[in-house]
What does this fold into?
Amino acid sequence: MEPTDTSHPDYYHRVVDCQWACPAHTDVPEYIRLIAQGRFTEAYMVNRHSNVFPGILGRVCDRPCEPACRRGRVEEKPVAICRLKRVAADHRDDVTALLPKIPKIKNGRRVACIGAGTASLTVANDLMPLGYQVTIFEQYGEPGGLMRTNIPSFRLPATVIDEEIAMITAMGVDLKLNHPIASMRELLASGGFDAVFVGSGAPKGKELKLPGREAGAANIHIGIAWLESVAFGHISKIGERVLIIGVGNTAMDCCRTSLRLGAKNVKVMARKPRGFFKASAWELDDAEEESVEIVINRAPKAFVVENGKLVGMMFDKMEYDLDAQGRITAERTIGEEFLPADDVILAIGQENAFPWIERDLGIQFDKWDVPHVDKVTFQSTRPGLFFGGDAAFGPKNIIWAVEHGHQAAISIHRHCEGQSVADRLAPGVNLQSRKMGMHEWSYSNDYAPVERRLMPHVSLKERFKKLNIEVELGFTAEAAAQEVQRCLNCDVQTVFTAKLCIECDACIDICPVDCLTITQNGEEADLRTRLKAPAKNLAQPLLVSAGLPQTGRVMVKDEDLCVHCGLCAERCPTAAWDMQKSYVHWPLAVDEARDLQAKEPKIA
Amino acid sequence: MTFIAKPKIAHPSLPKNGLGFTRRDYEGALSTLCAGCGHDSITAAIVEAAWELSIEPQNLVKLSGIGCSSKTTAYFVSGGHGFNSVHGRMPSIAMGANAANRQLKYIGVSGDGDTLSIGLGQFCHAIRRNLNMLYIIENNGVYGLTKGQFSASADVGSKAKKGETNFQPPIDPVLLAMTLGASFVARSFSGDKSQLVPLIQAGLNHNGFALIDVLSPCVTFNDHEGSTKSYAYTREHYEPAVHADFIPLEREITANYGPGEALPLVMHDGSRIVLRKCEDGYDPTNRSAAQVYIQERMKDGEYLTGLLFVEPSQNEFHTLNGTPAEPLNSIPYEKLSPGAKGLEKILSRYR
It folds into this structure.
């Protein structure tokens, strides 16, 4: 193998599994260390820099970081990254003074954002400090989009949403509430906007067209629309027996909300077996803790209506053959079953819909009526018109919408400056040694054999008394103090300088997880089998050095299970190994602005 | 030396030996030697060898004298028995322990100072008695614990860290042992575990005194230019003369050796050492020829390494003295002690 090019910004970034998995590239280990030091405000600001809504995401993020977490490979369970984010948000001080300063003199550019959800708010958050005037049009009377309408208040309290949105609106955003946009043509014709950002979400719940749908309509609800009505107080009751169709995260919110509105018997109906559920594991756990029954292998067949009223649903009982990988190879119906119900909620997906965008404005749509949006620049086929969040590529999670907003803000700025939107700043990585003395590092390098802490919940007796009692209580100080020690500090990188190595084997002998080997170079597939512990996880890269001075062999490190304990560097007599913190520089609009400004010709 | 203990966490796919132990179970306390010390690599090789041999930790006895090398018995197989003796007197302690219980495996770790200066006499007599033990010399050519003075194994012309040159000829433990009639003599290098690990395994299974002289660079006082025992110098001048594969009793010989390439030697317990000849005409079973060859190569400035001489059939101490097979602590007191009358009888023989 060629020596690994560690100067490539992706190499060390990838080693920080959580940061690599996070769409917004949050510097997770950095904020966890700050929490460990009790510096909650700083930890919050590290989060806010990347993900803008730490308090919200600390409760309801889909946590792509956690399945990626190296701790989950070294032992069973990953670090409770998301819960720690909430710790920072819960215990921080006032951050007003730390928020970006908004220039009094504006730059004269106006941007319209449609929909006051995550993506639009992020665009405003990134552009206001550059002097932009941002107007957000929102159809409802409160900002927040799906965060407010689709996530029940017992999971995400309104006060948390209000507080974090206020940080952005207080920058001077012109927030026009109760102001639906009925026509894109009119908005564009009204003039005065240098760029338009569509962050209107994916507000259309999928329909289930089965016999009896029209006749039983009064008691058949579309999940996201129903949750929205509950959020705004239009619905406050539901029947005793409720069936939820679908087993995604919206279904989990629907079943748990039903329990709080008077349902006694709630069943979630899944077409396939458990391994195929779309809902996150923890959301399933939380629903089942509340005695929601999840019924598998039932395919909806018909709504049963008697005397003009819904009485239940008919299902096909399904049976599946699975192969060794757990994939379905065959399916058949083995009978049918009737389940009585007073109400049925459909939670089988949602899509974006743009009836208000005229199709002759130069904004192209594909055959599924989804707009053509560039995956990097988020620009539509009409220059200066951008999409982000669920509106761009269909339903994803909040954290994705944040990153879309960041990227769209960069594009908007480049567009307004008359620059190509595609020609953007590249990411970078800076390294800084963590060596303090002979065997001292400015991070806690000892491995803490602590198991993942559990999130305490409000008792089952208490939590149903009101719709908005937040179920998760947040970590106690003790739990947080233990959980932070579980982080392996993957951002403190093992950096190797081949020319210093004397091949004494000290690092290899001390490595607790056998991830180092000095051996003859070879092709990657061959090399992976010849290491001290075979490197079977192909998703994790090998760090291969240049030829070593004395024998010409190479140092190979399998990044997979390194616990970043720094013992290789402590045992190294020549400091060929060093522990260095990697700062991943993921450009935002403000960096782009600085860069463009620096390139501007100076007037002598 | 490090400030934190080696984390207990291990690679999940770490293999287990016949006793269900992983290599990590054969580790000891954390080393307090200098970072990069060759001794730590030898410790790792002992751990690897003991794990592969599925030695029950309680059946291993670790003995040492004084010096950096002698600290290392604390760093492997923490479940074994240990005795850290007076400077240069480790062979006496080994002798006594071995006499009392011949069923345990004995591994002595010593240094060039402990063996070739203060303990030279003890070393020679342990060989003469063919004491059944593995004796490892961690040889770095300097007294590291007292800041780097030349030891008895320092080569003529070798330079100390501060620049002075050594003019006194060295004592070579390999040649010395061969002259004294040792039955298992090997030399290796801390930086070559593929050679060292099978040697340790063979040495532990050899029925008699097994010597491995391991070149083990002192990273603090003897790893500079001008030193003849630095990592760089050793790598340039060490030459594997013969490679030994150790094959335990229960395992088949699976490697493919061409005709005339390999010489299998059966040990007293039925396990085998397969010698692969790297050097033309070198015969590690011919004592006098081997001795001449080693000396000739030494004149050319080469460290000849590998299993340089082996004679599996020699009688060890217990056979020579007709001692009982079982450990003294399992022999009933009545049998072990002659009693007052018995003693009287014995003494009368000498009157």
